[in-house]
Amino acid sequence: TDMNRKTENVVGGWYDAADYERNQHHYTPVFDMLWAYEFAPQNFADGQLNIPESGNGVPDLLDEVAFGLEHWRRSQDDRGAVSGQIDAATHADYNDPEYPYSFSRRTRWNSLMYAAAAAQLARLIRPYDEQRGELYADSARRAWEFGRDQDNSLGQVVIEATERRGRGDSYDIHWQEEDSHSWPYKVQAAIQMALLDNDPDKLRGIGELAEMAHPPFQWRFSHRDFSAWIYAGLALRVHPDIEEEVAEHWRDFYIETADELLEQMHQMPYRHSWPRERDYRIGWGASTMTNFNRTLAIAWRLTGEARYFDAIVDNADFMLGANPTGMSWTTGIGYVFPIDIQHAFSDPRREPDQHRTIREPVPGITIYGITSGAPMHRQGRDLVWENEDEDGQSVVFQKEADRNVPLYRRWSSHPTANTAQCEFSVHETMASTVLTAALLLEPQWRPDERLLRRMPRRADLLFGWWYLP
After folding, report:
1. Beta strands in 246-326 (DSSP E)
2. Which among 271, 252, 119, 128 is positioned nearest to 198, based on CA atoms?
3. Other CB atoms within 10 Å distance of the CB of residue 157
4. Which of 201, 210, 333, 345 has its CA 20 to 30 A from that of 8?
5. E strand spans, 24-107
6. Whole-model pTM?
7. Residue 26 and residue 28: Cα distance in Å, rounded?
8. Positive or negative, the Cα torsion across 440, 442, 445, 450?
9. Does pLDDT of 354 surpass 60?
10. At what angle do helices 60-75 and 108-125 cross, to 10 degrees?
């Protein structure tokens, strides 16, 4: 570890479970919240979320977006370049002196991601806070100028790394930043910069650039990231200088994709957007069905058809208990929800902090839930099913039984032995839950006293060790 490269006093952003790094995947909740506000600004007000910024006259949702961008704004250098990762040499506690955290190298594509988000936030927050709007607008312009200039590519880079998450042998990674890496993010940033400054010149050639760039939901993108939003501005024709032919092409793309999701939903008995022919294995984060709601929301906005909105609700229902386990996959919501999850600040075994003696985890965390095939599943199964007989000999009960357990009932609660199910990430599980709740929110909703005064449940009233029969 190069101790001279540590980064101190960084404010902003979120962390995943027990991993304190912040990375470019965390733009997913940023764009989810920004587009939720674009779709339904009447839903949001100051004081809804009971956060430190509540009462400043700005809708809390936009304040939360600003919190999610602030560390990237602070990473911006004199050239306008923005980092995309804050990390240590290994998974380390945020205050571990042996492994300090630092910003990663600044790249064009990270700068363009930031430019798109900062420009969109600046435009939306300016009516409430002109000073902060200009702060992010100026920062976005600088990031845009850096990111769009091909001469700012990193070129040949040698990255020094170590095996075993910083504890093993050293090795080098040779890498080069290509212009094509930035194309999708340049499309997104150009749209938002054109809207911010009412500058149609930034849209010149955007249709051709979008055709060359990676489309949503194909490698390296998926339904679990923010790629749905990259071309949404084209389909929605958010600026009149976007050519109608370009807008029509992307309208057709999103509606066709949404219709495929509807067909998948109609084939599933629990009415959720997972393809039935893949109903045997689900990878990390893929079982968060609200991830499909980004595309469904865009199609709903494009057409106004209730079937897309109803599908959004169906995916939310599946995640909140209308599933074979009868379990809500978000802590604190419903009657049965996970209670022993991988989340450092919810772990009652981490003393001496008094609040960590509370059995119920922090509410509002959507975990991975039903997944399969990960090594942790075998470890967790053996912990549950292996025991000793009267002579002290090890006896394994039904060691191969998991092969016959239906996919949606393969659940066990253990924060470390079954990380594949009990962990969470802000981009794979949390973001789309927030997006869905925001889209379904009543206009100007505020928490009532019962919610504000809610206390953790007693341990004997927590039922999330096992799913319902």
Report:
1. none
2. 119
3. 13
4. 345
5. 85-87, 102-103
6. 0.91
7. 5
8. negative
9. no
10. 150
Note whether 345 and 361 are within 8 A (CB). Answer: no
Distance, CA of 319 to CA of 288 (rounded, Å) = 7
Strands (E), 298-406: 386-388, 394-396
Residue 324 DSSP symbol: T
**Structure confidence by residue, pLDDT tens digits, 179-199:** 999 999 999 999 999 999 999
Count of Cβ atoms closer than 10 Å to residue 468 Cβ:
12
Whether the CB-CB separation of 288 and 319 falls below 8 Å is answered with yes
**Token reading at 175:** 């890498």
Containing 158, the helix (H) or strand (E) segment is strand 156-162
pLDDT of residue 358: 83
DSSP 8-state secondary structure symbol assigned to residue 181: G
Separation of alpha carbons 66 and 134, rounded Å: 13
Query: What is the Cα–Cα distance from 183 to 177, expressed in whole angstroms?
Result: 12
Report the C-alpha gap between 32 and 293 in whole angstroms: 10
Q: What is the H or E stretch that residue 109 is in?
A: helix 108-125
**Type of residue numbered 187:** V
What is the Cα–Cα distance from 99 to 408, expressed in whole angstroms? 39
Whole-angstrom CA distances from 11 to 23, 68, 70, 310, 338 are 14, 9, 7, 39, 30
90 CB contacts (<8 Å, ≥6 apart)?
99, 165, 166, 167
